[in-house]
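Table S2 (continued). Query chain:
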Amino acid sequence: MSRFNPIRQFMLLQRYGQNHPWKYMLRVVLVVTVYGAILLALCFVPITVFGDAPLSQVWPWMLAALAGMAVCAALGAGVGLLMLRWTIKEAKVPHDADPNTLRTAQRHLRRGELSGDPQVDRLAQYLAPQFERANSNRFFALIGLVTGVPYLVFAGIQFSNGTGNTFQLFLALFVLVVFAVAWPWARRHKRNAQRLRKVYDAEHGPFDAETSPRRDERSHGDTGVS
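Corresponding output:
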């Protein structure tokens, strides 16, 4: 039954995405586009069947909406690909890492504590540089400057001119609160990852990052080694 555990499947997906980022993002675009096509069909087909608009007038709008959805999916996947490749520059998830071990290693990275299991601790130490990079202050500052600040300024100008609305103000405040919470959260996780690296080196000696962790013996051959 563990094979169908959604958390385990998510860890498998994470492992695949880090080792095959281009293929992963291409599949994201395809899934979003196909899902969008199904939604569009569910929305537009009843109009042609039960409404007054003929199919010759509806299908160009359907194609235009689908093309726009595909473009948005491609742009989102492109941003995701850049972020993914940036965060995994130091170390990818090993191809044969067991999902349960991976999840446990990430949990102890967030806590900054060794687990006592050599396999888990070694994987956590291997992934620590990636964890620090993903939670870097510069990374979150860049996200805030690129996405949050322009929207806050735009919403503030509109609201001060009397052309804004309550929803825009609420959304701007929501972005501000999320960023205010995410910043210290990321800094704490980065410090914990650094602490785990120091504790590991103190107990086991300098870590050789060139030698990736071996496969967990508790894996049952369903990890999709490539």
